[in-house]
């Protein structure tokens, strides 16, 4: 089981099938805003879809490949953060996150990403942590910038979302940089 207390207000808890109904509810509530940069939103059309996603995530977690954690702020479910990819061979982790609009702009994603970065280096023995976001996703790009990640460059046309190819900016930090 994964549980990470970020601070007195924010916690991350491993998403399980029991969370499917509540998670689907917040996704459905914020569907219009979330779908701009998250291609999977249109595929999440029911509690069953959400439960299937969470079950697949649990399988990936058991294999050490991914982590899907529910973000709670003051006990309220407000989004998801985790490792979209954990590569044990190359000791790299890729962090992803999203919040429903009511919880954006409060530093929650930044604090969650910082905690996940520390966790990746300390508990997962990673060497490199990466965050990618669409060039137009200004809010998500601000997170690695605030955390002091190095902007490495742009991946052109790397994600197909609603008929459009999006470019992603890649940021990273290394264990030695994070600890200093």
UniProtKB/TrEMBL annotation:
Highest taxon of the lineage: Bacteria
N-acetyltransferase domain boundaries: 10-176
GO molecular function term, any single one: protein N-terminal-serine acetyltransferase activity
InterPro entries from the UniProt entry: Acyl_CoA_acyltransferase (IPR016181), GNAT_dom (IPR000182), Ribosomal_N-acetyltransferase (IPR051908)
GO cellular component: a single term: cytoplasm
Keywords assigned by UniProt, alphabetized: Transferase
PROSITE patterns in UniProt: GNAT (PS51186)
Protein name: Ribosomal-protein-serine acetyltransferase
Organism (species): Salsuginibacillus halophilus
């Amino acid at each position: 089981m994964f549980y990470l207390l970020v601070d007195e207000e924010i916690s991350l808890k491993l998403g399980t099938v029991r969370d499917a109904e509540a998670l689907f509810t917040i996704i459905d509530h914020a569907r219009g805003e979330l779908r701009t940069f998250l291609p999977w939103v249109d595929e999440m059309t029911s509690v069953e879809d959400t439960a299937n996603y969470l079950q697949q995530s649990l399988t990936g977690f058991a294999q050490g490949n991914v982590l899907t954690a529910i973000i709670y702020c003051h006990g309220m479910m407000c989004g998801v953060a985790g490792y979209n990819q954990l590569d044990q061979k190359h000791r790299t982790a890729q962090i992803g996150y999203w919040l429903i609009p009511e919880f954006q702009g409060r530093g929650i994603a930044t604090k969650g990403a910082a905690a996940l970065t520390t966790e990746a280096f300390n508990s997962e023995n990673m060497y490199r942590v990466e965050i990618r976001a669409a060039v137009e996703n200004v809010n998500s790009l601000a997170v690695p910038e605030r955390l002091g990640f190095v902007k490495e460059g742009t991946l052109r046309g790397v994600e197909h979302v609603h008929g459009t190819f999006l470019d992603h900016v890649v940021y990273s930090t290394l264990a030695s940089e994070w600890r200093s």
